[in-house]
Amino acid sequence: MSLDLEVKKTGDSLRIGYGGYLHMRVEILNTIQSGLGDKFKKESFSGQKFYSNEVFNAIKKLKLNNFIFHSDCDGYLTYRDIKKTLGVLENYDFSNTEWSKTINSFINLLKIARDNKSYIDYY
What we know:
123 residues; four-stranded antiparallel β-sheet
């Protein structure tokens, strides 16, 4: 099973497995703040209804909450959220991560959406 992310105006897309989408987010968070991605992953599988204040507030402070907490089933990432997410991700080097190719593909998709003033559809 997979998740498709598509720029609505252009049709550019990225297909990623549900597990891959989680791992990509974990790698992004660990690159930005050591251990945050691991805490996010642990809490994602803890059975809790909500994330701890520590994890939630750290991700919100990074201005990545709309991307990180986005459903991996369906919905969309708004143009505003894309600009915010891209504004953060462009400040980091993900080349030394296990998921660098996927992260760079995702960042490229965000750029396409931003440049076309579009949103990204999740399905």
